[in-house]
TrEMBL record:
It comes from the Archaea. It comes from Infirmifilum lucidum. One of its GO terms (cellular component) is cytoplasm. CDD domains: TRX_family. GO terms for molecular function: protein-disulfide reductase activity. Residues 1-109 form the Thioredoxin domain. Pfam families: Thioredoxin. This is Thioredoxin family protein. The lineage of its organism: Archaea, Thermoproteota, Thermoprotei, Thermofilales, Thermofilaceae.
Length: 109
């Protein structure tokens, strides 16, 4: 399961882990549910990796997260490697799961 997190905890994990996938969502956002399902599938591929984290921030609870990460629409997924943003996905891109899996494999090898 994707870990629900706070802004502060997300920032700490981004700095300390090799790869972090950070999903910004809201309960009312229907496309966010589709992204969550895809992320859960991708998570299964990397479940055994302790240096990779899949995190979610509810923007209704953590309103400062939108400005901090410059998120202007939902859903948004940001991929970090060693504390640096390397890719951003907005909406539900075609082949999102395949593309994200490939990206994580390349970043974590």
């Amino acid at each position: 399961m994707i870990q629900e997190t706070s802004l502060r905890e997300a920032e700490n994990l981004i700095k300390s882990l090799k790869v972090v996938i950070l999903d910004f969502y809201a309960e009312w956002c229907i496309p966010c549910k589709a992204v969550e399902e895809i992320l859960e599938q991708v998570l299964r591929v990397f479940r055994s990796r302790s240096d990779i984290a899949f995190l979610r921030i509810d923007v209704e609870k953590e309103k400062d997260a939108l400005g901090r990460f410059e998120v202007y629409g939902l859903p948004t997924v940001i991929v970090f490697q060693n504390g640096v943003e390397v890719r951003r996905f907005s909406g539900v891109p075609r082949n999102f799961g395949v593309e994200l899996t490939r990206l994580i494999k390349s970043l974590s090898s």
